[in-house]
Design brief:
Blueprint: E1 14-20, E2 23-27, E3 35-36, E4 50-57, E5 60-66, E6 77-80, H1 91-109, E7 121-122, E8 129-130, E9 137-138, E10 143-152, E11 155-161, E12 175-178, H2 185-197, E13 200-212, E14 217-228, E15 238-245, H3 258-270
Parallel strand pairs: 1-5, 10-14
Antiparallel strand pairs: 1-2, 1-3, 2-6, 4-5, 7-8, 8-9, 10-11, 10-12, 11-15, 13-14
Length: 271
């Protein structure tokens, strides 16, 4: 993808992703992503900071502004993590915000060459970093992973992951895992489900993908049917797992996540 390093004029209307220290400046009101021109928005002087157009939304550029820290006088709103946007903005705008966070992660983690150790430099015609000592070039990392909702009759398999363990606020979601080298997505579904839950699946069907910028995953969503085996969870990955009827569900992941979409797809098939 082209690295659109376009400096916007102060009078140009745009969406503004102002990010520093993994925090996003969000506006008060119904639309948390600031929109307008710099001359009208109550920002301090952002011209001094690095800017990058990361895409377009509703006919207007989406501009990333990288802050060195959060010690700026921002009366426009407050700073929040990226997850704050889930369910509050469209999927397209959320993905553009996620792209912005992934770009910052890429630039911060590729300052030096992994081949010879010399400083890396931004390329101005594409989103890449290059070492002019040895010629090594790097692009933003994308980690493919699967996520799957499993149906057994009129039930769905849901699990509380170790990383989601918040006592009193336990979220139950679908199974997921990273694809290994030389593995198809379908093989990854079968392996991850067996490793984490001890069961076999069949009728694996692809539904949809979602960029998941925590920090740089691409989630490939599937649904599948239970094929056999007893639940035997990997305690390193899961705190708990079980088969749930749709009239008695635990706390689910929020709308806007591909996990919730897959659960709703299984719900439709159970009617």
């Amino acid at each position: 993808m082209q690295n659109e390093q376009i400096l916007l004029t102060r009078q140009q209307m745009a969406w503004w992703l102002v990010i520093g220290e993994d925090q996003l400046l969000v506006a008060q009101g119904e639309q948390p992503i600031p929109f307008g021109c710099l001359d009208e928005l109550p920002f301090p002087n952002l011209d001094a900071f690095e800017q990058l157009v990361v895409g377009e939304y509703e006919g207007y550029p989406v501009n990333l502004v990288v802050l060195p820290d959060l010690n700026l006088d921002m009366r426009f709103g407050e700073y929040q993590g990226l997850r704050y946007l889930l369910g509050k903005v469209s999927d397209e705008l959320f993905n553009l915000a996620g792209r912005a966070f992934q770009i910052i992660n890429f630039l911060n983690t590729h300052r030096f060459c992994g081949q010879c150790g010399q400083p890396m430099h931004r390329i101005d015609w594409e989103l890449a970093m290059k070492c002019y000592q040895c010629g090594h070039r790097c692009y933003p990392r994308v980690s493919p992973c699967i996520i799957v909702a499993i149906r057994r009759g009129k039930q769905v398999l849901l699990a509380n992951h170790v990383r989601h363990n918040r006592p009193g606020h336990e979220i139950y979601t679908t199974l997921a895992g990273f694809t290994e080298a030389g593995e198809t997505l379908e093989q990854c579904v079968e392996r991850e489900v067996f490793e984490e839950a001890g069961i076999r699946v069949k009728n694996i069907r692809y539904i949809k993908s979602q960029p998941w910028p925590f920090p740089h995953s691409l989630m490939m969503g599937f649904i599948a049917d239970y094929a056999g085996g007893e639940l035997n969870i990997d305690k390193n990955e899961l705190n708990d797992a079980g088969w749930f009827s749709f009239d008695d569900l635990p706390l689910l992941p929020p709308h806007g996540t591909i996990a919730r979409l897959l659960i709703e797809k299984v719900r439709q098939r159970c009617r």
